[in-house]
Design a protein that fits this description.
single chain; about 475 residues; mainly alpha; two-stranded antiparallel ribbon
Length: about 475
C-alpha cells in the first residue's frame, strides 16, 4: 500500500471532525443564548439602562440632537453591557473552575471552540439588547422633540453596539486569565475611572456615553474601527490562553499595531475639532448665527431670543450687536459662545431663551457675561435687563441658578434695584425714544443706576452696594 493510499481517508475524517466541532459550537452557542435570556440580572440591567435615558429626558426635556441623544442612550446601555461582560467572564471561567474542565473535555469541541461559542452567544445578545433600545430611543426623540439638530453619523451610531461587543470580549479575556469572580467588579471600577478621565494617555476608551469627553469628537469610522480591532485583539488573547499558535500571535500583533495609529489619528482629529470646530455662518433678519453642521433648524429658536433684543437697540447702535457663535455643551462646562448644542422644550425653553437673550444684551451694552463680576449700581445693567425684557418677561425677583452660578445676564450679578428699574422702563411708553437719545451715556461704565433713572425718566430706587468685584 502506498503512502498516498494510506493517508487518503485522513482528509474526510478531518472534515467530519471539524463539522462535528462546528455543530457542537453552534449548539453550545444556542444553549448559552437561552441561558442568557433567563438571566434575571441581565433583564434588570437592561430595564434600568433603558429607563435612565428616558427619565433624564422627561425630567430635563431637550430638543432632539443626534450626538447628545446617542451619548445619552449609550450611557444607559452601558449597564446591560457591563452585565454581559460579567456573565461572559463567568462563563469563560468554567473552563478552569473546580472539576468542570474534565467534564467539558468530553464534549466533541475544543476549549477554543467552547470559548468562541460563549463569546458569540454573548455578543449576539449584546447586539440585540443594544440596537433595539437605541433605535427605539432615537425614534422616540425624533418624534417628540423636533426639530432635530445635528448630522446623523451612521458609524458613530454603530459605536454603541461595538462598545458592548468590546466589553463582552473584555469579559471573555478576563475569564480566561483569572479564576476569581472578584476580577469583574474590579474591572468595572477601572472602566468607570477610565470613562471619567478620557484625558488619560494610558488607554483611550471611546465608549459612547455622556462621559466620553473628547473621544466623542473622534471621527465615527475611526472610532468604530478602533473598537472592532480591540474586540479582535481581546478575543485572540483569550484564545491564546488555551493554546498559542503562530497565526494567533500574528493576529494579536497586527491588531495591536492597528490600534496605535487609530488612537493617534482619532485623538488628533478630536483635538482639532475641539480647538477649531467647523461652523457655518447664516444671516437671518440682520443677525448672524455661526452654528455647527446640522443646526440650521434651530435658528428660529435662537432668533426668538436674539431678534427682539436687537430690535430694541436703536438703529445707529446695532453694529454693537454680537455675532452668535455656537459652542458644545458638555458635562465639564461650556466653552465661550452664545448658544450651546442643547435647547429645552416646552416651558423650559423660556429659560433657555432668557439666558441667551440676557447674554446678548449684556454683550451689546459692553458687559462681559462670562466675566463673573458684580454689575450692581451700573446704568448699563439696567439697560441690559431692559433689552432682555423684550425677549422674555422679566421676573419680579432676581433669579440665580446656584448649580451653574448663573443669573439672567450670564455670570454677572446684580440686585433688585437694577431689575426694578428695568421693569419700570419696559412699562413706560417713552422709553424707546429715551434709550435712543441717551444710549451713549447709558453704556458708560461709570454711569450709575441714578443716572439711568434720570435719563430714562424713571422713579429712582434705593441703590444697593456691590457684593463682589465690580465689572470694569
Amino acid at each position: 500500500m502506498s503512502t498516498a493510499t494510506a493517508l487518503a481517508p485522513a482528509g474526510p475524517a478531518r472534515r467530519a471532525a471539524a463539522h462535528r466541532a462546528l455543530s457542537t459550537t453552534r449548539t453550545l452557542a444556542r444553549l448559552e443564548v437561552r441561558h442568557l435570556l433567563t438571566n434575571a440580572w441581565l433583564w434588570c440591567a437592561l430595564a434600568v439602562g433603558v429607563a435612565v435615558p428616558a427619565l433624564i429626558t422627561l425630567r430635563t426635556p431637550q430638543r432632539a440632537e443626534w450626538a447628545y441623544d446617542t451619548q445619552l442612550a449609550g450611557t444607559g446601555l452601558l449597564l446591560p453591557a457591563l452585565a454581559l461582560m460579567a456573565t461572559a467572564g463567568l462563563a469563560a471561567q468554567r473552563e478552569r473552575r473546580n472539576h468542570l474542565p474534565e467534564t467539558l473535555a468530553a464534549l466533541p469541541a475544543s476549549v477554543s471552540a467552547r470559548t468562541l461559542a460563549t463569546a458569540f452567544a454573548h455578543m449576539a445578545v449584546a447586539l440585540v439588547t443594544t440596537l433595539v433600545p437605541l433605535a427605539a430611543f432615537l425614534l422616540w426623540r425624533h418624534l417628540v422633540a423636533a426639530p432635530q439638530a445635528g448630522v446623523p453619523d451612521v458609524a458613530a451610531l454603530w459605536c454603541v453596539p461595538a462598545g458592548a461587543l468590546l466589553l463582552v470580549a473584555l469579559g471573555i479575556a478576563l475569564g480566561c486569565f483569572f479564576t476569581s469572580p472578584l476580577v469583574f467588579p474590579a474591572s468595572v471600577f477601572v472602566l468607570l475611572v477610565l470613562l471619567a478621565n478620557q484625558a488619560t494617555p494610558l488607554w483611550p476608551l471611546p465608549l459612547t456615553s455622556l462621559l466620553s469627553g473628547t473621544t466623542a469628537l473622534w471621527p465615527g469610522l475611526s472610532r468604530l474601527l478602533y473598537l472592532l480591532v480591540a474586540v479582535l485583539l481581546l478575543l485572540v488573547l483569550a484564545l491564546s490562553r488555551h493554546r498559542r499558535s503562530g497565526p494567533r500571535t500574528a493576529t494579536a500583533a497586527l491588531a495591536l499595531l492597528g490600534l496605535v495609529p487609530l488612537a493617534l489619528t482619532g485623538s488628533a482629529a478630536a483635538r482639532r475639532q475641539a480647538d477649531d470646530p467647523h461652523r457655518t455662518c447664516t444671516a437671518h433678519h440682520g443677525v448672524t448665527y455661526c452654528h455647527f453642521d446640522g443646526f440650521a433648524p434651530w435658528i428660529p429658536l435662537w432668533a426668538a431670543a436674539a431678534e427682539p433684543v436687537r430690535g430694541a437697540v436703536p438703529g445707529p447702535f446695532r453694529a454693537a450687536f454680537p455675532t452668535l457663535t455656537q459652542y458644545r455643551t458638555t458635562l465639564n462646562g461650556t466653552a465661550p459662545g452664545a448658544m450651546g448644542t442643547q435647547w429645552a422644550t416646552a416651558d423650559r425653553q423660556v429659560s433657555d431663551r432668557g439666558t441667551l437673550a440676557g447674554r446678548l444684551a449684556a454683550t451689546t451694552v459692553g458687559l462681559a457675561p462670562d466675566s463673573a463680576c458684580d454689575a450692581t449700581g451700573q446704568a448699563r445693567t439696567v439697560l441690559a435687563l431692559y433689552l432682555t425684557g423684550h425677549a422674555v418677561p422679566l421676573p419680579e425677583r432676581v433669579v440665580w441658578d446656584p448649580d451653574e452660578d448663573l443669573t439672567l445676564l450670564g455670570r454677572l450679578t446684580y440686585t433688585q434695584t437694577e431689575l426694578a428699574l428695568a421693569r419700570q422702563a419696559l412699562a413706560a411708553p417713552g422709553t424707546p425714544a429715551r434709550v435712543a437719545d441717551h444710549w451713549a451715556a447709558l453704556v458708560r461704565p461709570d454711569a450709575t443706576t441714578d443716572d439711568a433713572a434720570k435719563l430714562l425718566g424713571l422713579n429712582p430706587t434705593a441703590p444697593q452696594p456691590p457684593s463682589g468685584k465690580a465689572c470694569a
